[in-house]
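Example 3.
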Amino acid sequence: MNLRENVDLNNLPKHIAVIMDGNGRWAKKRGGLRIFGHQSAITAVRETVEAAAELGVECLTLYAFSTENWSRPAMEVSALMQLLVSSIRKEASKLNKNNIRLTTIGDTASLPAACQNELKEAMEMTKDNTRMTLVLALSYSGRWDITQAVQKAARDVAQGNLKEQDLNEKAFEKYLSTAGLPDPELLIRTSGEQRISNFLLWQLAYTELYIMELLWPDFRKEHLYEAILAYQNRERRFGKTSEQLTK
Ligand code: IPE
Ligand code: IPE
Ligand code: MG
């Protein structure tokens, strides 16, 4: 069955977030090192970006490296950082050609200088692109995001730029790293784990979750269509009753 044909283009999620999980297990099943799994995940990333842009999704956020991932063996961390540099170098001009804007969320100042430079160049090159925003979550965690937002808001209050009573949800969101982006309507997690792993804690408040058993390196366009179709069959009630929605 061609899943893409069944996707309702008038009811696309504007923002899709993905927890790309299962690279290590994918490699282990093949008797390889975890790093082999990370290398093999690049195709999945490419397919996801392409499929999302082709459909007309406005924003795609990929969880590539969490705050907690710094605790992995040094060899794995450094291989991931090198892979990040080489992939961005390889893919940046293609993103640009496809009118895709690259941006990041997370504590990117903690990344190695080579990564920061590569990211900076790619973001500069693509900054005016309008077809889709690709957000890489790097050295990211939801608690980090909320904490840095509170710090910035507190600073603004202390400096008299913001009144405490004006700090409502809308105002607070401007301090989050995702300021300006809509909340994700759909979160996809591969590898079957039923958890958020400190991803977009604030932004996922009413996001539809789609967890698949598939390991991330096996993810292809069809899987994105599958997740979107599942999303399109959900009833998003936002606390209301089903009857209220159909009125
Ligand atoms: C996801 O795959 C990639 C990163 C977290 C960087 P994992 O490396 O977590 O793979 P598993 O979960 O151990 O199989
Ligand atoms: C979540 O995967 C982080 C990324 C995909 C980058 P993990 O593999 O780190 O998550 P846990 O630790 O199993 O929850
Ligand atoms: Mg994992």
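The longest strand covers residues 132-140. The CA atoms of residues 3 and 222 lie 7 Å apart.
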